[in-house]
Amino acid sequence: MPNIKVFSGTSHPELAQKVVDRLGINLGKAVLKKFSNKETCVEIKESVRGEDVYIIQSGCGEVNDNLMELLIMINACKIASASGTCNSTFSLLLKIKR
User: Fold this and answer.
1) Is-contact 74 85, C-beta < 8 A?
2) Which helix (DSSP H) or strand (DSSP E) does residue 51 occupy?
3) What CA–CA distances, in Å, run from 88 to 8, 15, 53?
4) Higher pLDDT residue, 95 or 58?
5) Which of 13, 35, 55, 67 is deepest in the core (most CB within 10 A)?
6) How far is it, in rounded angstroms, from Cα 42 to Cα 44?
7) Within 10 Å of residue 3's Cβ, how many Cβ atoms?
8) In the chain, what is the greatest distance between 2 CA atoms, to the nearest angstrom?
9) SS3 (DSSP) at 9
10) CA angle 62, 39, 94 (to 5 degrees)
């Protein structure tokens, strides 16, 4: 299997778990929290340097919050030097290259 990491946003962690179970890998470790002023904080708790990163986040529920969380997760992975970030939201698959 290529070097990939799969992370989950808070919109559908059960789906992300099913995906990684099917792939036979572990779900990436990340801490997502909201501050009292509703700002989102994301901490990627493992190295993604040189890895292809997939972030599973749906567009259901609080769409604005889920989209902002996804964008913050993408940014955190890019800052941590992921080789490529793929994300799935609103039934689209987007590939973002550095």
Assistant:
1) yes
2) none
3) 10, 12, 11
4) 58
5) 55
6) 7
7) 11
8) 41
9) coil
10) 55
